[in-house]
Amino acid sequence: MSLSELYANTRETGYTINFFMKAGPHPRSGLLAAPFFTTNDPIKALTDKGCDVRLIVRFSPITTPEALREALENPRVKVRYFTDAKFHTKLYIIDDIALVESANLTDSGLKANRELSVLLKQDRDEAFYALPGLFDELWNDADVLNEEVLREYEKAFKSKEKPTHEDAFEKFIHKFVKPAAPKSIVVGSDKKSKERAFIQGFRRKYDEILVPSHNEILEVAQQHGFGRPEYAGQDPQIEMARFLGWLRLIQGSGDGWRETSLLSDPNDRAARIAKHVSVWQSTDDTVKGDMYHASAEIENIANIRSYLCDPNQLARLTFDELFRHLTGCHAFLERLRFASKDIGENLSGLERLRIDFQERNTLEAVVRSVRYLLSGPGDAIERAYDCIYGDYKLNGFGEACIMELLGWGDAKRPPFNNRSIRGIRLLGFDVEYLVAGQ
Asked: Residue 368: what pLDDT?
């Protein structure tokens, strides 16, 4: 079956949905941009064949949270969004063909409305060559859709006060999420603020790269018998964190973690994951360096969730108790090597770290930051930003510490530190450049 040169949703010209259905047996890359989004049919037509999709949409009275959630939960799809009503681009690129058109990603736009869509081919149409670059410009300007943002959008969309007019909806949605506009559209300033640029980059790092990589590893591991008896009945994230740390220390010591080959094929990654899971399941040595036995590790995470995630419990802690619970984060323990021996040569490294941390941060400051990070309002990534660079920053508790602690406190977000990122890299994922500052 061949593609039409144009689509107008008639029997004679063909229906826009056919562009996605007939895109070939093995499409590799789909770039989809449309302001209105209500159906995943075109996306599934691609991802079911192994295609990776990048989707840009607009928060609007039309775009449904149900369609967004389905796309977000598809492991082959990355989603970004705008809130500005001036975003009207409808552009669909699948490998070396593109559709420039008037149709949105809605059932009516793809199958019923009298649209007009023109097909361009890379090997035939000079105009094709500008299209991927135009998509990338929009992609870089758009904000990353994650679970926290989607929950806020669901609240807005289901509100009885939701306007149906696009301009009014744009003002309304900004009560729930921050503005996101293409750079050619001036919103106060045509430059992104430093804060927004950082937060966008942070979302991309964690929500588009590290979280999907982590989830892929866990899914494959569980398919191959992952689960040591000492972790039975526990949150699988606890064992996964230990598995990734063990990989870094035992299987990838020195520079070994970065010297393994990168693997772009998920099947190749699955084979490598399965091999290391088999060793993890059979080894007698799951403790290395500062890694705890399973029982101690489980207790540490339980303490973080019981005492640090509960504002009332947190407020009752002494500095020593608070410090002890924070050392349940391995990224914080790794700061032992930075604790000056000038503090006391006869003291243990842990005691020197406690004294150094207390000299640099008051109890009130630590409680305030931990409470805000784990129990504060709004988006978790924005709270993390405030704790790394903003008003809630602690001395000696940087990005790796914050993101590991946030992961232990948020059931929907895996914990990450430099050791786990290196373990992910050892399994073939291209994440070496994402190793964080302590």
From this structure: 98
Cβ-Cβ contacts under 8 Å for 204 (sequence gap 6 or more)? 144
Phi, psi for 177 (deg, rounded to 5): -135, 155
3-state secondary structure of 21: helix
Instruction: Pick the range with the lowest mean pLDDT from 129-143, 167-181, 399-413.
Output: 129-143
Distance CA 149, CA 176 (A): 9
As a whole number of angstroms, the distance between CA 400 and CA 333 comes to 11
The CA angle 249-255-257, to the nearest 5 degrees, is: 60
Beta bridge partners of 6: 118
| Mean pLDDT on 140-155 | 92
Measured CA to CA, the distance from residue 249 to residue 223 in angstroms comes to: 24
The amino acid occupying position 222 is: Q
What residue has token string 């940087």?
A: 398
Read off the tokens for 23: 């895109």
Per-residue pLDDT tens over the stretch 264-289: 889 999 999 999 999 999 988 777 65
Task: Establish how many alpha carbons lie within 13 A of residue 69's alpha carbon, considering only the half-sphere containing its beta carbon.
Answer: 9
Nearest to residue 365, comparing CAs of 401, 397, 399, 406? 397
Residue 121 has what DSSP assignment?
E
Could you tell me if 66 and 157 are in contact, meaning their C-beta atoms sit under 8 angstroms apart? Answer: no
Question: What sections of 7-146 are H helices per DSSP?
Answer: 17-21, 41-47, 65-72, 107-111, 131-141
Residue 184: how many other CB atoms lie within 10 Å: 10
Backbone angles phi, psi at 148, to 5 degrees: -65, -45
DSSP secondary structure code for residue 405 in this structure: H
The answer to whether 356 and 343 are in contact (CB under 8 A) is yes
Which H or E run includes 79?
strand 77-82
DSSP 84-118: -TT----EEEETTEEEEES--BSHHHHHTS---EE
Question: CB of 55 within 8 A of CB of 77?
Answer: yes
**Domains of the chain listed by start with CATH number:** 6-192 (3.30.870.10), 203-434 (no CATH)
Terminal Cα-to-Cα distance of the chain (whole angstroms): 55
d(CA 414, CA 433): 19
Helix or strand (DSSP H, E) at 343: none
